[in-house]
Amino acid sequence: MTLRPLGIVKEILESAGMGLSYAHEDLVFLEHNGFFLQFTDKEQEVLIHINEEAEESELAASLTLLERKAKENGMVFTRGDYYRLSQADEENIRIEFLSIEDCATQGDTNG
Known about the structure:
By secondary structure, this protein is an alpha+beta fold.
């Protein structure tokens, strides 16, 4: 089992002016829903997954800042996939990972 440096990730988030909302297994949810983080099998690597509903242009500065702060702390934050959230039941959410093609196709559909 790979150790996950949650403390370092929390420090990176805080130094970037962001807050950690919830961590569960390999996922780290932030106080906003524009993106979340996922630990990988590589101890120093974290994926940044983008919400399909987020305006990526509005997230660009935050993502760049996170990547820079991660590098300063010996970690690598890289782009992951897009995702969609939905309610699974009263207590749980469902995360569906999407490909770039899925997001582009949905953006082209008007109906």
